[in-house]
Amino acid sequence: MTEESEGRPSHARRAKSKKPTLSPEIQKRIGRQLQDLYVGVVQQGFPDRFTELLRRLDAAEASSE
Questions:
Q1: Residue 57 falls within a domain, yes or no?
Q2: pLDDT tens for residues 4-22?
Q3: Confidence (pTM)
């Protein structure tokens, strides 16, 4: 049975057996970009509506105990 007859492209098996080919420089650049993105998300803060929702959930949980 071929890979294509199993519903997978023929290159799928080859791709699994290869090690990553990104250079250390590219890996570092991707890492820096991900860190910058994460910092931006964290700096956005927590929306007031979520804070209110958490307060309500805490109150409901406290009253059911």
A1: yes
A2: 455 666 555 555 667 778 9
A3: 0.43
